[in-house]
Specification:
5-stranded mixed β-sheet; 18 helices; Immunoglobulin-like; alpha+beta; 8-stranded mixed β-sheet; 42% helix; 663 residues; 21% strand; 4 domains
């Protein structure tokens, strides 16, 4: 597979170099490289460490010793003085992961320095010159293009007293090299999965753990890795079918790793009864989160219409319960379907999260049409087509209403929902689907109570003219939802998204208003108009491609792991927050707590750096980072105190006072 990927990428690179200006033949390389010795005047017979100081151009990346599913590792050819030798293998720092089109790459996107060990021959007189040359061939890539490059590097040393040079740099570079773990691990293939057990003291700090194999056929590169602690062991469950010893690097923190190896054997699995407690707690959190969603502006009108239907009277006990059960079934099925799709995509290597469908501007355009149709229905402009199920009874209509409520509610993350859905992504799939079902149950609870408790139905206001007035009042929050979706389309796809969003509103309004006029004359809505109401928005959505640049985010620099590492190395406190334009609770927190004069003043006084991760378009790098902190999506708020090894995860509901206290 890697050979095929390499051939394809090389062909693409060659074509691009021939037809574009990304890599001119005589232009500077995209990886700036310099040979840096730990001593410019080594003694005869001394070992010298030479760092290959590598600095990728912004947007480009180099590859680790094992590139993963695609690319290839650098090839080196030394030309050394007589008697001098170089160890065949470099010492590589811990890489990072980059998932593109389902292919996992092990790469470096920030400056890095592989270390080479050279042996100076003995018996040389002081002042003897040692010219060293290195020819290196490598592949350098962006997210969309790869270019093969070559460099000729040179370094001249002189036999001397062995004094150290570049000590500060080498302290940093050596700290990034994985340290060998003497104790061997064990792996076992069990139930179609690879379970790797690495001996590691329980007191050892582990953050963002991941295993990087040295060679192919050990683990499936793009497969998710579930990491758990079990006393003095670290267990990694993933996919793979190794046939001999496994060797690689275990990442245990930012730029920290261990060189490990494991042999086939039996891995005793922990008996963790707390798993049931975690699943029940996540289920309860999801039910509570779903219950809170009912007050959101995109859900409340739908729930209110169903309640008004019961308030009209004429509903017997059986019919009310059928309506309630249908609404419950629709909400639960939609939440389970979305959750199952997320679990399936993540199992395939994608870094999607909750509300992932809103990362596609075409889906947003379809939602504009749907919510505007409901707005017109609430405003009394027509009665029959799409929103019929929202205002009429029947099991099928109630199922559709519950499904619609669950679908449009996904961006409105409640304050208790993020942790529950994050836990669902690390639970076994049956427990995870149960958590997603709990979200649907919470969403359906109010209508379920109205349907099954006669006293609640009797407490509803009696039918009258007020119902029509209230129905038109409900059109206001739904209209605000439409405007929010148009804004989101603009943020995701620029002017094209804005124009197509407005065009969708106009086209939907014309078609449905024409149908409504027919209804007022005593005629049916019209099959042609009903068909147009479906086809026109779909055609407008299909015309949208997205990808336009969005306006700059307020309140901080763009988040990247490299920028975070730089700020932390400077000793700066860092507040990193992850948001999306379709996330309602994110926007509430930004308006009320983050982007305020008081917070800005407090951050300036305490020199708190702010990094913003915008996940509106589903950036996979951000998705992996969010996933590593046990979140299914945004919002996520992290505070890195100076000197702390791990961030403090802040609540999903912020207050200005909470942020002002960060220092």
């Amino acid at each position: 597979m890697r050979a095929l990927c390499f051939a394809v990428m090389t062909l693409v690179a060659a074509t691009t170099v021939a037809h574009a200006d990304l890599a001119p033949a005589n232009g500077p390389p995209h990886l700036a490289m310099t040979l840096v010795p730990d001593s410019v005047a080594p003694r005869a017979g001394q070992t010298v460490t030479i760092a290959l100081d590598t600095r990728p151009e912004k947007g480009w990346h180099g590859y680790w010793r094992n590139p993963g599913d695609a690319g290839f590792a650098p090839s080196l050819a030394w030309t050394l003085p007589k008697g001098a030798t170089a160890d065949p293998d470099l010492q590589w720092p811990v890489p990072s992961t980059l998932l593109i089109a389902g292919l996992m790459n092990y790469v470096y996107e920030a400056p890095y320095a592989p270390l080479a060990t050279l042996h100076v021959p003995a018996g040389l007189a002081a002042g003897t010159r040692l010219p060293m040359r290195l020819a290196i061939n490598y592949l350098v890539c962006t997210d969309t293009i790869c270019v093969p490059e070559a460099q000729q590097l040179s370094l001249d040393l002189t036999i001397g007293d062995g004094a150290a040079a570049h000590a500060t740099d080498f302290d940093r570079w050596r700290a990034a090299i994985p340290k060998p773990l003497d104790a061997a691990g064990t792996y076992q293939l069990k139930d179609g999965k690879l379970v790797l057990a690495i001996p590691l003291p329980a007191a050892a700090k582990v953050q963002d753990a991941a295993f990087f194999p040295y060679g192919p056929d050990m683990v499936a590169y793009a497969a998710p890795q579930a990491v758990t602690r079990d006393g003095d062991r670290l267990l990694i469950a993933t996919a793979g079918a190794p046939k001999g010893r496994i060797a690689g690097v275990l990442r245990i923190g930012p730029d920290l790793g261990l060189s490990v190896h494991a042999d086939a054997g039996t891995v005793a699995m922990p008996t963790d009864r707390s798993g049931w407690s975690a699943a029940l707690l996540a289920f309860a959190g999801a039910v509570l989160g779903g219950l809170i969603l009912n007050v959101m502006p995109c859900v409340f009108p739908i729930l209110s219409l169903k309640a008004l239907h019961l308030a009209r009277g004429g509903e017997d006990e059986r019919a009310a319960r059928v309506d309630a059960i249908g609404y419950l079934v629709g909400a639960v099925l939609m939440c389970v379907a979305l959750g199952g799709l997320i679990l399936g995509l993540r199992a395939g290597g994608s870094a999607v999260g909750w509300a992932f469908q809103l990362q596609d501007p075409r889906i947003v355009v379809l939602l504009i049409a749907l919510t505007f149709a409901i707005t017109l229905n609430l405003a009394g402009r027509f009665e029959v087509p799409v929103p019929q199920f929202a205002s009429h009874g029947g099991a099928a209509g109630s199922v559709a209403t519950g499904a619609l409520a669950a679908f449009v509610a996904t961006p409105c993350s409640g304050p208790f929902m993020g942790a529950a859905l994050g836990a669902a992504l690390v639970l076994p799939w049956p427990a995870a689907l149960a958590v997603f079902a709990g979200l649907g149950l919470g969403l359906a609870l109010p209508f379920l109570a109205i349907g099954f408790v006669p006293s609640l139905r009797r407490g509803l206001p009696k039918p009258g003219l007020w119902m029509e007035r209230f129905r038109r009042v409900l059109a206001v929050p739904m209209a605000l939802t439409v405007l929010a979706l148009v804004w989101l389309a603009w943020r995701q796809a620029g002017m094209a998204g804005l124009l197509l969003g407005i065009a969708t509103i106009v086209a939907t309004g014309v078609v449905l208003s024409l149908g409504g006029r027919r209804q007022k004359r005593g005629l049916g809505f019209g099959r042609a108009l009903a068909l147009a109401a479906l086809i026109v928005p779909a055609g407008l959505a299909a015309a949208l491609t997205g990808g336009a640049a969005r306006p700059a985010k307020v309140g901080g620099d763009t988040f990247s792991e490299a920028r975070l590492a730089t700020l932390r190395a400077e000793g700066r406190p860092v507040f990193a927050y992850f948001t999306a334009d379709w996330c309602l609770s994110c926007k509430v927190n930004e308006a009320s707590s983050i982007d305020t004069a008081a917070t800005h003043a407090a951050f300036a006084k305490n020199k708190v750096a702010v990094l913003v991760g915008d996940w509106t378009d589903g950036d996979p790098a951000l998705g992996r980072f969010i996933q590593a902190h046990n979140r299914a999506g945004v919002p996520l708020y992290l505070y890195y105190a100076p000197g702390a090894t791990e961030p403090r995860v802040l609540p999903q509901v912020l207050t200005p006072g909470m942020l002002a206290a960060l220092r």
